[in-house]
């Protein structure tokens, strides 16, 4: 399976400008035989705290219509992020279309970034998403979710690839890279982390988009700039590694849950 890490500098709250860049990269992905392009969190706007202005209703979303058409036109699946504002409520989403423009997943970020005031503008969601891209099971997450390992364990019971789209600032770049590798190792699956680059909303982003194997090996790493970084993965490596080193067979989720209930109550 050929995956492109679509690291971009989308500026800040400049949808039209970023659409042109994404369209160019989708065309490039087609030329290079890519199966799936993964773009950063809030792909066309950057990390906006004005969802009332830049958020969209999914029923008539310009962003969703754009990426749907790009997927169909180029025959390439796409994973992208957008702020959603519906009925006075704002949520942060990751949407996946297949190569025919059919929607496969619509994930709402579970953990708004309270340290960065995201929780003052967006509410957290409470559902995981599972889909198949080219027959390979995949689950999406968004940025700050990466710091919370429990949902990743649940997702990796079914999924061989987990994507994490982000607007993760440069000062905490070591956390981002370390946690991507940790999530891959502990879940024994491929982790595709795609961050933005450049400047936006008063913050600096180096990128550090990465693809990590089930054994924790870094298959691709790009620091700054715009463009596609392409990695070829073999999803069969997930099953092979889990069979050779059956880590998950030794997990005790029921015990962990009971311990949490017991000690949290205390």
Index terms:
266 residues; alpha/beta; 7 helices; 29% strand
Question: Could you estimate the helical fraction of the residues in percent?
Answer: 25-40%
Describe the biggest sheet?
Answer: 6 strands, mixed
Radius of gyration: 18 Å
Q: How many strands appear in the DSSP assignment?
A: 14
**Form type:** globular
Low-confidence stretches: none
Q: Label the structural class.
A: alpha/beta
What is the first-to-last residue Cα distance?
48 Å
Beta-strand fraction estimate: 25-35%
So how many helices?
7
Q: Helix-strand pattern, N to C?
A: EHEHHEEEEEHEHEEEEEEHH
User: Reading side by side through the largest sheet, how are the strands ordered?
Assistant: 5-4-3-2-1-14
Mean pLDDT: 97
Q: Could you walk me through the main structural features you see in this protein, from its secondary elements to its overall organization?
A:
- There is one protein chain.
- A hairpin with a 2-residue loop joins β10 and β11.
- Helices cover 29% and strands 29% of the residues.
- The mean pLDDT is 97.
- The chain has 7 helices and 14 strands.
- The strands form 3 sheets. Strands 5-4-3-2-1-14 form a 6-stranded mixed beta sheet.
- The N and C termini lie far apart (48 Å).
- The chain has 266 residues and is an alpha/beta fold.
Question: What's this model, at a glance?
Answer:
With 266 residues, the chain is α/β, with parallel strands linked by helices. It is 29% helix and 29% strand.
């Amino acid at each position: 399976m050929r995956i492109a890490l679509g690291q971009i500098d989308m500026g800040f709250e400049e949808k039209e400008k970023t659409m042109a860049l994404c369209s160019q990269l989708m065309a490039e992905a087609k030329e290079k035989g890519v199966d799936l392009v993964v773009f950063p969190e809030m792909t066309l706007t950057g990390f906006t705290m004005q969802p009332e202005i830049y958020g969209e209703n999914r029923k008539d979303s310009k962003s969703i219509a754009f990426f749907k058409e790009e997927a169909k036109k180029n025959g390439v699946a796409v994973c992208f992020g957008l702020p959603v504002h519906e009925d006075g409520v704002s949520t942060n989403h990751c949407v996946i279309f297949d190569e025919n423009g059919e929607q496969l997943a619509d994930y709402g970020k579970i953990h708004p970034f309270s340290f960065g005031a995201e929780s003052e503008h967006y509410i957290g969601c409470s559902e995981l998403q599972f889909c198949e891209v080219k027959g390979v099971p995949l689950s999406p997450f968004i940025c700050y979710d990466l710091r919370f390992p429990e949902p990743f364990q649940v997702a990796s019971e079914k999924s061989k690839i987990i994507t994490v789209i982000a607007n993760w600032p440069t000062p905490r770049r070591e956390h981002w890279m370390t946690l991507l590798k940790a999530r891959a190792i502990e879940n024994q699956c491929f982790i595709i982390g795609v961050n933005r680059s450049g400047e936006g909303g008063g913050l600096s982003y180096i990128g550090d988009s990465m693809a990590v194997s089930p054994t924790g090996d870094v298959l691709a790493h790009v620091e700054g700039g715009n463009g596609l970084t392409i990695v070829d993965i073999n999803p069969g490596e997930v099953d092979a590694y889990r069979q050779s080193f059956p880590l998950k067979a030794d997990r005790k989720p029921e015990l962990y849950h009971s311990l949490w209930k017991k000690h949290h109550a205390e």
